[in-house]
Design goal:
single chain, 2 domains, five-stranded mixed sheet, 10 strands, membrane, Sulfite exporter TauE/SafE family protein, Cupredoxin, transmembrane helix, transmembrane
Length: 342
Amino acid sequence: MDVAGLFLAGAGAGLLAGGTTCAATQFGLLTGAVGGAAGAGSGQAGTRPVRQVSVFLAAKLASHAALGALLGLVGGAVQPGPRVRGTLLAAAAAVLALFALDLLGFRPVRRLLRRDGASSSESEPGDGGEGCHPPRAGRSGRPVLLGAATVLVPCGLTLSAELLAVTSRSAVGGAVVMAAFVLGTAPLFGLIGVTVGRTMALLRGRLTALLAVALLAVSGWTLLSGLRLGGWLPSGGGATAAADSARFVRTDASGTQVVTIWALNQGYRPALLTARARVHTVLVLRTRHTSGHMRVFTIPSRDKDVYLPATGETRVDLGAPGPGRMPFMCASGHFPGAVTFR
C-alpha cells in the first residue's frame, strides 16, 4: 500500500475510533490534561482549555508517529507481548489514579506531582482559595505527559492501526499510518477536551469530584485489563456449557483434538470450553468481518499474540496441554474467555 493509501486507512480508522472506543478509553487522560483550566482566571477561561487540548493532541501525535515509525522499521519484532502490555497498562492505571487523587486535593499526591511543592499555606479543596487550583508550574507539563501517555492505553482500533504500521515495513509508512490515525481522532477529542475544560473553569471545582471519580473508574478498568493481559488474575470462575464443548470440540481422523472459537466484534463464541488434557490439540480461530482488538487473540500463559484476518480461519498448535485452565482474551484485555483442560 502506498503512503497515500496508508494515510487514508489510518485516518479512516481514527475517525471511527474517535467516536467509539478511543474517546472512552482515553477520556481520563484527556480530563487530567485539561484539569488545570479550572484554576484559570475569568479572562483565561476561554483560551486555556484550547491551549491545553492542543498541547495534549500534539504530544499524542508525536508519540504515536514515533511508535508507528518503529513498528514500520522493524516489523512485528518490536511488538510488546501480553505481559509487557499488561505491565504498561498497570502503570498507566497508577498514573490515572494519581491524577484522580490530585483532582480530589490529596496533599501527598499534589506534592508529588508538583515539584515546586504545595506551600504550608495551601488552602483545602473547595474552600475557594488558591490551594484548590494547581500551581502554574505544576500544570505546564501535564498535557504533554498525558498526551504522550495515550500510546500506553490503546483502544481496539489503535491496535488495527499498529498492525497496518507493522505490515507497511517502512518507517515512513508506519509513521504516516499512526499520525493519520491520531489526526482522525482529533476532531472529537478536541471538542470533548475544550468542552470539559471550559465546564470545569466555569464551575470552579464543583465538577472536580465527579470527574475524579470517573478517572478512578477508568483507572480500575485499565488495571483490570492489564492484570488480565499479564495473566495475574485468578484463573478460576465461569461455568462451561456442555453443549458448547460438544459442538466446538471434536477429534479429527488423525486423533488431534480440534477446539474451534469464533472471534467476533461482540466477543468470543463460545467464551468458555472444556477439552481433554494431554491430547494433541489444535485451536481453530474463525473470524467474520472482525475488526479492532478482536483481531488479536492473546494467550497470557504463553505470552502469545495471534493476529487474525478480518475474515478467515487461523490454526494454532497448542501441543498436548496438561490439566488446567488456559485463559484467553482480545489484545486489550476486555473480552476474556478460557479453555479448561481435564
